[in-house]
Amino acid sequence: MTPTRTLLLLRHAQAQETAPGRTDAQRELTAAGHAQAAAVGRWLQSAGLTVDHILCSAAVRTQQTMQDLQLTGSVEITDALYNAGSDTIIELIHGLPDDVEVALVIGHAPGIPQAAHELAHPLSSDPGAVATVEHRFPPATIVRLETPGSWSTLDRAALTQAQLAG
Prior knowledge:
By secondary structure, the chain is an alpha/beta fold. It has one domain (about 5-15, about 25-165): Rossmann fold, CATH 3.40.50.1240. The chain has helices at about 30-45, 60-70, 85-95, 110-120, 125-135, and strands at about 5-10, 55, 75-80, 100-105, 140-145, 160-165. It has a six-stranded mixed sheet, with helices on both faces. α2 (about 60-70) links the parallel β2 and β3. α1 crosses α2 and α3 (about 85-95) crosses α4. About 40% of the residues are buried.
C-alpha cells in the first residue's frame, strides 16, 4: 500500500527590492524575511513534520529561506524552479523519488500559488485552508497537501493547512 504523502509548497520569504547592478535571482531576504522563514521552520516543527526532500529554486532568496527553516533532509537546488509556472513545478514533483514521504518545494509567485490552487482537490480540501490562500499568497506562505498516491501520478491532493506569514 502506498503511504500518504505530504507536499509542502512554500513561497520564499520577504526579499529586498531590485537594485541596480544586481539581478533578480541575486535578491536577498530582508531582516523581516529571515524572521518569517524562521517562523515557518518553527511552524513545521510544531506540526511534527520531518521533511525528507527539499526542491529549492536556485535564487538566493529561496536558498536563504531554506537555510532559515533549519530542516534536515536531502536538498535539490534547481534553476528549473526559478520563475517556474505551475506545470513545471508539478512536473518536478512528479519526479520525486518514491521513498520521499514529505516533500517541500520552495519557489516563487506566481508558480507556487498556481500549483497549490491546481493541486487542491475541491471536495477533499479543507475549506478554511483554501479560503486562506484563495485571493492572496504573500511571501513566506506555506500550504500542506496530502495525497495517498505516488508522486509520479499526482494530479490532485487535499489541501489541509495554509499558513500565511505572521
